[in-house]
Design a protein that fits this description.
heterotrimer, A mainly alpha (517), B mainly alpha (168), C mainly alpha (125), A: 517 residues, mainly alpha, 21 helices, globular, C: 125 residues, Helix Hairpins, 3 helices, 0% strand
Chain lengths: 517, 168, 125
């Protein structure tokens, strides 16, 4: 092969990357690799659990290393195939992305351990663990990519694997839920793709750092507000914000409870992540224009989610509405848009990933102990499992935002931020929503845990199981620790929000020699 | 569909299409073609074989489960990208070696092994979907879900299916 | 040329939305497919339209000839086609299964996961 006569060196990365830069791509590569291996050994279901837990534990370690690296040295970038950005696809991780990736990995590990008990051989043969690995590849990729079309691709990767997880078992209820979930989410991602198309038409680039650098020049001439509105609609649909939230309560209660837990913890938060990334970092001025619409949607999401939770009898559907109420809180931070508010949203997202997953796991364990999903059928759990009940109470308080647990700090930050800009009605919505969620969850504790069983069923001997105790215990401990010692996380989220509002470090990491022409 | 003509032609056609798919895969290295389109051709070859001789004949012929083939392709593609960690260049950079095989210099690249990985992923994934669609009803539950047929089917009395309403 | 394509894309979107507003799952599915194709056309147009020169480097050259088409939108479309193709295959199977299991293709009557007469939560202790 003859050496090319055209000089390509101007378009290539010539220095070899530092080993630490590999941390940006390795989480995704690791998950895809483990998913591939699990697909190859699909018949030997006994191995699945061991392989998958090993993979998820490695993922937690990698994401922790990435987080430490980034919080010390700032954002890092790696481009695919040596092509310099904006030509090559860049993976860029900043503090926000790596925080989300780390917490998701922890939650996925917990859910993976829980699945060892919850997912039987049938579900494993169907491919629960390979799908879980690919889901995590999609989630990690979405958090770590620096290219907006690549973000779309990761959305689709996690969407496809979520379809697979959703119909695990192929029961009629699941197919009913999956159909609505699939169609509406597909329309949501297609809207995202439409927005990406227009973005390319306007900017001629898909690299997020490049877009952030160029937006100020094009602001006068290009229809950027319309574009931002399209992005907000697409991501709100992924995040299940009112009025495009109806797919969530229709589908999230149908799959196995581990799958619900993963979805409730991770998927909506990926939508929120993309919303914050695009509106706060790429189009801050346009977000300002649209902030009233987002604020109204946020307030309605909060209140409707909370009211929905109050009206549910099925524990899983109740938790689904609590997830929606949380989404409203995160949207409120986006609507206000000051660094303090965005940091509140990030905090809330981190808290919500842990707490919502744990709440679904609590629902699953309650149903296993009590033999029913509905509040009317449950009862007497406190007498049967006091430790489990204590953990559940802690998680309920955390989800409701009561001190001294993890839900308090983000709510305080958001309240303060909304009062600072004089949006008293938004603050009121946050408080009302928190109050109603408290009522709904307190009623769960009252009915399912405190009161005696409605009809005395034969006491089944239910053994304690580490595969349930450890994940639930660790997630609860995380939530309590975050509530009692919030300084580190508060500091990290504030720095992440500052990095989004002032993305010069992000841009410098992609273009070390100054912005692209 | 299961006619004498098809059954006579299918083996030849399948063999030709598989050969052609490999040709397209390798041609894609420097010219139009590549792993994705090659994989689609191979998957359609297997689909034709399945139409002629039934799904179980295809499953026997390809020896491995389609999803296992897809998994091996995914692993190969991932590893091809990962090789560059040892060469000190960013992820997915194409690396070349020029071994002499029988006195001929053969350029080999991670780009090609990545493309072969894509080929296998496409063959595996599309074949498994195609086989699931070709399969007759009783076999299907076993093929898609890989689960014992759900007890629901036996227990639940099937609701009378209302005719799809015609609008207008 | 771009204006013509813009009108065509608009027609695609209009037809897709009309189909997706239907209650019958098969029509919704067709609408989704049409929407996906409209988006592909949109991506194609966003790279600006040129004529006759495909973005392939001819033998003996190292760079694209002048006036070649923009290869990036084509790569994007290829990705989008692959994804929408696999989604379509999945949705097709899912719709068919839903019709078998639920006995209807009317989305109003698919209430198995969200039953109409759902029990209220207990009002008292």
């Amino acid at each position: 092969m003859a050496a090319p006569s055209t000089d390509l060196s101007a378009a290539l990365v010539l220095a070899s990357p530092q080993l630490a830069d590999w941390l940006v791509v390795l989480p995704v590569v690791l998950m895809i690799g483990f998913g591939a291996v699990l697909m190859m050994v699909r018949k030997s279901v006994r191995l699945h659990g061991t392989i998958a837990i090993t993979g998820l534990a490695l993922l937690v370690l990698l994401d922790a290393a990435l987080l430490i690296r980034i919080s010390t040295y700032g954002p890092i970038t790696m481009v695919m195939g040596r092509w310099l950005p904006p030509f090559g696809i860049a993976f860029t991780a900043d503090l926000f992305g790596s925080l989300m990736a780390f917490v998701s990995a922890v939650v996925a590990l917990a859910a993976g351990v829980f699945a060892l008990r919850d997912i039987d051989a049938g579900g494993r043969r169907y491919g629960f663990f390979p799908f879980l690995m690919l889901l995590m590849a999609g989630v990690s990729g979405a958090f770590l990519t620096g290219d907006i079309f690549n973000l779309y691709v990761w959305f689709e990767v996690l969407l496809i694997s979520s379809f697979g997880l959703l119909i695990l078992g192929s029961e009629p209820e699941q197919i009913d839920g999956a159909l609505k979930y699939a169609v509406l989410n597909l329309i949501g991602t297609t809207l995202f793709l439409i927005a990406v198309g227009y973005l390319y038409a306007i900017f001629g680039t898909l690299n997020m750092a490049d877009i952030a650098g160029k937006a100020s020049r094009l602001r006068e001439t290009a229809p950027l507000v319309t574009l931002t509105a399209l992005f907000i609609l697409a991501f709100a649909m992924k995040a299940a914000a009112f009025p495009v939230n109806f797919w969530l309560p229709a589908s999230y209660h149908t799959p196995r409870i581990t799958v619900s837990a993963l979805f409730g913890g991770l998927l909506t938060k990926v939508g929120i992540y993309a919303l914050i990334r695009v509106t706060v970092m790429l189009f801050p001025v346009e977000r300002e224009e649209l902030s009233f619409v987002v604020a109204v949607s946020a307030a309605l999401t909060m209140v409707i989610g909370a009211l929905g939770a109050l009206a549910q009898n099925d524990l899983r559907r109740l938790v689904g509405y609590v997830v929606i109420a949380g989404i409203g809180n995160m949207m409120a931070g986006v609507a206000i848009g000051t660094p303090a508010a965005v940091s509140g949203s990030i905090l809330y997202a981190l808290h919500s990933v842990v707490t919502m997953t744990a709440l679904y796991l609590v629902a699953g364990e309650a149903a296993r102990l009590g033999g029913a999903w509905s509040l009317s059928g449950l009862g007497g759990l406190y007498r049967r499992a006091p430790w489990f009940s204590a953990a559940s109470l802690a998680l309920f308080l955390a989800a409701a935002g009561l001190p001294p647990l993890s839900g308090l700090w983000p709510k305080v930050a958001l309240l303060k931020a909304s009062l600072d800009i004089g949006a008293w009605w938004l603050a009121a919505a946050i408080l009302i929503s928190a109050f109603i969620v408290t009522l709904a969850l307190a009623r769960v504790f009252l009915l399912a845990f405190w009161r005696p069983r409605p009809e005395p069923a034969p006491e089944l001997a239910i053994a304690r199981d580490w595969r349930i105790a450890w994940p639930l215990g660790c997630l609860t401990a995380l939530s309590i620790l975050f509530g009692l010692f919030p300084e580190t996380v508060l500091d990290l989220s504030q720095r992440a929000a500052t990095g989004l509002a002032e993305p010069s470090a992000y841009i410098r990491s992609v273009f070390p020699g100054g912005a692209a022409p | 569909m299961n006619t004498l003509i098809l059954r006579t032609v299918a083996p030849v056609l399948t063999a030709l299409m598989l050969l052609f798919s490999v040709f397209v895969l390798l041609r894609g290295h420097n010219e139009p073609g590549g792993g994705f389109i090659g994989g689609l051709i191979a998957a359609s070859a297997l689909a034709i074989y399945g139409i002629a001789f039934g799904v179980s004949a295809v499953r026997r012929a390809i020896r491995f489960h389609p999803m296992a083939i897809a998994g091996s392709g995914l692993l190969l593609a991932t590893l091809s990208g990962l090789v560059s960690i040892f060469a000190g260049v960013p992820f997915m950079t194409g690396l070349w070696i020029y071994p002499e095989i029988l006195g001929v210099e053969v350029p080999l690249a991670t780009v090609m092994s990545f493309d072969i990985g894509v080929y296998l992923v496409v063959v595996g994934a599309i074949t498994s979907i195609a086989l699931a669609l070709e399969q007759e009803e009783p076999e299907r539950a076993e093929a898609i879900g890989e689960q014992p047929p759900p007890p629901v089917r036996a227990k639940r009395p099937r609701k009378p299916r209302p005719k799809p309403q015609v609008e207008g | 040329m771009e204006a013509l394509f813009a009108i065509l894309i608009g027609l695609f979107f209009a037809a897709a939305i009309y189909l997706m507003l239907s209650k019958h799952t098969v029509r919704i599915l067709l609408g989704v497919v049409l929407l996906g194709n409209g988006v592909n056309l949109l991506l194609f147009t966003t790279g600006r339209l040129t004529r006759e020169v495909p973005p392939i480097i001819p033998a003996g050259m190292d760079a694209l000839p002048a006036g070649a088409a923009n290869p990036l939108p084509q790569a994007l479309i290829l990705t989008a086609i692959v994804i929408s193709f696999s989604f379509f295959a999945f949705l097709l199977v899912l719709t068919y299964r839903a019709y078998q299991e639920l006995g209807t293709d009317n989305s109003d009557e698919m209430r198995l996961a969200e039953p109409r007469d759902e029990e209220r939560p207990p009002m008292g202790y």
